[in-house]
Amino acid sequence: MDYLHGLLQDAGPDQDLLADKLHRYRDSWIAQERWEEALSLTNVLGNYFIYVSINHKKAYEILEGYTPFILHNTDREQISFFYMTHAEAATFMQRYKESLSILDQGIAFMEKHRDSSLYEFGYAYLKAGENSDKVNEISKSVYYFEKAKKIFIHQKDTLMYLWAQNGLAQLYGKNGLYDRAWQARREVFETGTQIGEHQVVAVARLTACNEANQQGDFQEELHQIRMALKERNQEADVQGIVDILTLSYAVSVYARNGIRDTSDLYKKELISKIGPHVNNPFLETYYQLAMSQNALANDQLVEAENYAQRVLDGVQGTLEAENIMRSEFLLATIYERMNDLQGSLEHFKNYSRMKDSVNNVTSRRKFAFMQAELEAEKKDMEIAQQRKDIKILDASNKEKTYWLVFGGILLLGGSGFLWLFRNRRFAKKEKELTEKYSQDLLRQQERERSHIAWELHDGIGQQLTIMSKKARDADQKELLQLSQDTLEEVRMLGKGLLPPALANLGTTGAIEQLVHTFDEKYSMIFTLEMDGIEGCFSKEQNVNLYRFVQEAMTNLVKHSHATEVLIQIVRRANGVKLFIKDNGIGFNYEENYKGHGLGLKTMEQRIRMMGGTIHIRSENKRGTIINANIPITDA
Questions:
Q1: Which reaction(s) does its UniProt entry say it catalyses (predicted)?
Q2: Which residues contact 95 (CB under 8 A, 6 or more apart)?
Q3: Phi, psi of 400 (to 5 degrees)
Q4: Contacts of 509 (CB under 8 A, 6+ apart)
Q5: From the CB of residue 73, how many other CB atoms can be counted at a distance below 10 Å?
Q6: Using CA atoms, how far apart are residues 193 and 201, in angstroms rounded to an integer?
Q7: How far, in Å, CA of 145 to CA of 569, rounded?
Q8: What is the CA radius of gyration of the chain?
């Protein structure tokens, strides 16, 4: 591969002719079933047409054409490279869902072999994070970015770590979490500059510029574009793409802010450099937006209209909501300047509808993300009281049993058989009543948790929000910080009491989010294999199932000392099976259950409340296995 890459690089003006010849060789080797050679050539050609020739359509066609044959290959490194190059080509073609599907295949392949030395291992998670953001899956995007960062830290690849960090910052900013975005991006600015990786710093500056524009902070927007322009002159492996993107932003920003001379200056440079990138749909969109914005600033209205309409035609039907809104707003402004009020109104309505839709989606995504994150940060606050109540109940039951036995002996005397018979019946009835009481106690606690959580949100939470606004308006910084910190604590308290992920994500999504959160927070490797179980259980049963998994994982991280945990949730025709296994130190189940194993008793009680059965098997130094079977009810 290195030799062929070098051959293409040194071919000069004959590069495309040589690439076509290698393409024919590739097809010939496929026909001869020379799979390893064919795959190597496919990867070389895909890489060439993506990054050198900038012909993404051609790259996609070559890589897509090899998809039916990839199963014949055995070279793990080449297979991993193929998945990544194929996904990259689909991404540049703005086929984000298709790219995610390819990435999932690649991730599954690399996870199976667990070769963390592969560069593609972390890069697959990075691209999956970027594309999950494109299709509005914020929680998955955060998970993918954090996973990528872990792998890049392990590989000691600082540059790729910064790209993942920048992706996370962009995700936060896109969803209105500007403080978090700035915190994440600050590390990119500082570390990227220190190690001389200017291209990642430039892209981070551009996203900061974009966020400043969204917030109406035009001074910050100008500052960030100036800083980005300083970074673009440095040498870097993707500098050509970064250069075009930075110049496009500069032309637009300066034109939009009425600084026409500077916009015109960068426009000339942009036109001189866009030639090799005309087949790049991503860069072409930003180039045409820049040209339209510049033409508008210079009263060249027909030219501005043509460029803006080309952008709109290109992004319609894609997931690029931001660029659709930009082109609609541009056209509304252009038509207004042309005195075409009907056309201006039509495009402005389109812009307003999409903006409202995006704002609503952003608000929902932000709220769902915050809920899911805070849900995992604190364990149930009343668990200690619950355990105390169960202890008191056990002690009370024992005392009752002693007195009844003693009284029975006095009254019945020698009627031992009758006493034994009645005592066994009573013990059985007492056990049933105790179990019912415990179940009623759990139900009441969930109702109280829900009530308290909503009271905190609707009462104290709203009052604190008003207080924060007033403190901000009065410029009382200390009071503002105090009120915001208190509001954050109230929110965390509320999330600990009520699992909102169930309402927002459904049972399947809530459990997936819970496992992802544990995987990110702790050093254990959590593997989840889960069927969709929506509609299997009632609302109360879904809460019990969620709490059961939460309690099991909390016990694992506190006591097991495991390094790997497998969680399987399998949907069958008449029931759902749960299987949780770890490779930890294990424990003596009988001692823990009879002694201080109140967490185990609560877990068992929750399964029984759902009409299910549970079996826990654990051995010292051999780990623990939890098996539960729950019948599907008419939810």
A1: ATP + protein L-histidine = ADP + protein N-phospho-L-histidine
A2: none
A3: -60, -45
A4: 501
A5: 17
A6: 7
A7: 25
A8: 31
Token pair of 560 as six digits: 């097991």
Convert the pLDDT of each residue in 424-436 to its tens digit. 554 455 455 445 5
501 bridge partner residues:
none
Angle between helices 56-66 and 35-51 (to 10 degrees): 160
Q: Are 185 and 204 in contact (CB under 8 A)?
A: yes
Q: What is the rounded CA–CA span in Å between residue 448 and residue 425? A: 34
Signed CA dihedral, 432, 617, 570, 523: sign only: positive
Based on the number of CB atoms within 10 Å of its own CB, is 518 exposed (0-12), middle (13-18) or buried (19 or more)? buried
**The pair of three-digit structure tokens given for residue 18, joined into one six-digit string:** 């040589």
Q: Of 326, 321, 330, 329, which is closest to residue 361 (Cα–Cα)? A: 321
Q: What's the token pair of residue 8?
A: 């293409």
Token digits of residue 33: 């079933």
Amino acid, res. 455: E
CA angle, residues 43, 46, 52, in degrees to nearest 5:
120
Parallel/antiparallel/unpaired status of strands 564-571 and 575-582: antiparallel
Which structure tokens are listed for 296? Answer: 């508008």
Query: 624: number of CA atoms within 13 Å, CB side?
Result: 24
CA distance 268 to 216: 28
Q: Closest by alpha carbon to 582, among 606, 557, 601?
A: 557
Other CB atoms within 10 Å distance of the CB of residue 498:
22
Contact 331, 309 (CB under 8 A): yes
Question: Which secondary structure element, helix H or strand E, spans residue 252, and what is its range?
Answer: helix 239-256
Residue 575 forms beta bridges with which residues?
Answer: 631
Q: Nearest-5° angle of CA 175, CA 181, CA 183?
A: 155
| Beta strands, E only, 203-275 | none
Nearest CA among 221, 223, 222, 245 for reference residue 232: 245
Residues in a beta bridge with 615: 627
String of DSSP letters for 427-449: HHHHHHHHHHHHHHHHHHHHHHH
Strand partners, 623: 619
Contact present, 82 and 70 (Cβ < 8 Å): yes
CB half-sphere exposure, 32, CA atoms < 13 A: 11
* H-type alpha helices, 556-618: 589-594, 598-609
User: How many Cα atoms occupy the beta-carbon half-sphere of 498 within 13 Å?
Assistant: 18
pLDDT digits (tens, 9 = 90+) for 484-531: 666 665 555 555 555 667 777 888 988 998 888 888 888 888 888 999
Q: Are 49 and 56 in contact (CB under 8 A)?
A: yes
Q: What is the pLDDT of residues 160-210, one digit of tens each?
A: 888 888 888 888 887 777 888 888 888 888 888 888 888 888 888 988 888
> What is the tens place of the pLDDT at every residue in 65-109?
999 999 999 988 888 889 988 998 888 887 888 888 998 888 888
> Could you give the CA distance from residue 240 to residue 52 in angstroms, rounded to a whole number?
10
3-state secondary structure at position 624:
strand
Longest dimension (CA), the chain: 112
Which residues neighbour 573 within 8 Å (Cβ) at sequence distance 6 or greater?
none
Token pair listed for 445: 């606690």
